[in-house]
Task: inverse folding
């Protein structure tokens, strides 16, 4: 019998009841591992556990902005499954507004959920991984952590923090056998993106910005996370991986192919 990718491994995921988190949970169990899921949505979380099988999955209702909640989730998962090998810090919220528009409470809330939660998860899980002598952490950072957006000040700030926190933690843990990487998804078909899909003209603008001319599916992102979490990525740490249909590879200019003749005349002038 072939050994599966995550045989004997235990993974944790925050924001795991839907979207990318749920897709990751399914990938872990499909490939022989067990998964502990944290989310605020208890109904969806318990439904996913039923789908995956109680022996393969557990659920804990968790507010990731509260450190005590995150500690309880991580330590409970370790007690339930006996070990922790993988942590996927996936939970996050959006947040629209410029510095002129935002109040401090809204800014703080986005930072707490999107950035502090990553620190809380790592802080709680690392002692378990250090005892094992190995571990893999993947943080969900977003391309909004690599680039600036219009009117997304709090979200950009939080996700930019996740990017550099990932690098800093990777350096801290490099000699301990614990790898730390981040993914930066672009437009993905998740609940966070649902409002944009409903606004057809806005959604069309997003699609035009994606060189591959479509949004990503949660399963496509989850496969990259699973790779980074697996031993196949054993020499990768501190990497920030865009999974965005090509958005971060572009200059920002539109497709200029229809105007090449005009442009060439300008270049030759």
Result:
């Amino acid at each position: 019998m072939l050994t599966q990718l995550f045989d004997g491994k235990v993974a944790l995921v925050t924001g795991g009841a839907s979207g990318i988190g749920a897709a990751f949970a399914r990938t872990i169990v499909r490939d022989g591992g067990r998964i502990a899921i944290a989310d605020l949505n208890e109904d969806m979380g318990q439904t996913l556990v039923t789908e995956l099988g109680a022996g393969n999955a557990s659920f804990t209702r968790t507010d990731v902005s509260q450190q005590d909640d995150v500690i309880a989730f991580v330590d409970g998962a370790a007690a339930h499954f006996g070990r922790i090998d993988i942590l996927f810090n996936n939970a996050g919220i959006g947040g629209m507004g410029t510095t002129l528009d935002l109040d401090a409470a809204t800014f703080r809330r986005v930072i707490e959920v999107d950035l502090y939660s990553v620190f809380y998860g790592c802080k709680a899980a690392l002692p378990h991984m250090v005892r094992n002598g190995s571990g893999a952490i993947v943080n969900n950072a977003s391309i909004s952590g690599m680039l600036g957006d219009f009117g997304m000040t709090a979200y950009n700030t939080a996700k930019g923090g996740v990017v550099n926190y990932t690098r800093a933690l990777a350096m801290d843990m490099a000699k301990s056998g614990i790898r730390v990487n981040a993914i930066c998804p672009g437009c993905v078909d998740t609940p966070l993106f649902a409002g944009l899909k409903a606004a057809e003209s806005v959604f069309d603008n997003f699609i035009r910005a994606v060189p591959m001319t479509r949004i990503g599916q949660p399963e496509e992102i989850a496969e990259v996370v699973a790779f980074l979490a697996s031993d196949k990525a054993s020499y990768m740490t501190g990497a920030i991986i865009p999974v965005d249909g090509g958005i971060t590879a572009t200059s920002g200019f539109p497709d200029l192919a229809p105007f090449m003749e005009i442009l060439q005349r300008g270049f030759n002038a």
Observations:
- The mean pLDDT is 93.
- The CA atoms of residues 97 and 103 lie 9 Å apart.
- The beta strands are 10-14, 34-39, 57-61, 86-89, 135-140, 178-185, 240-243.
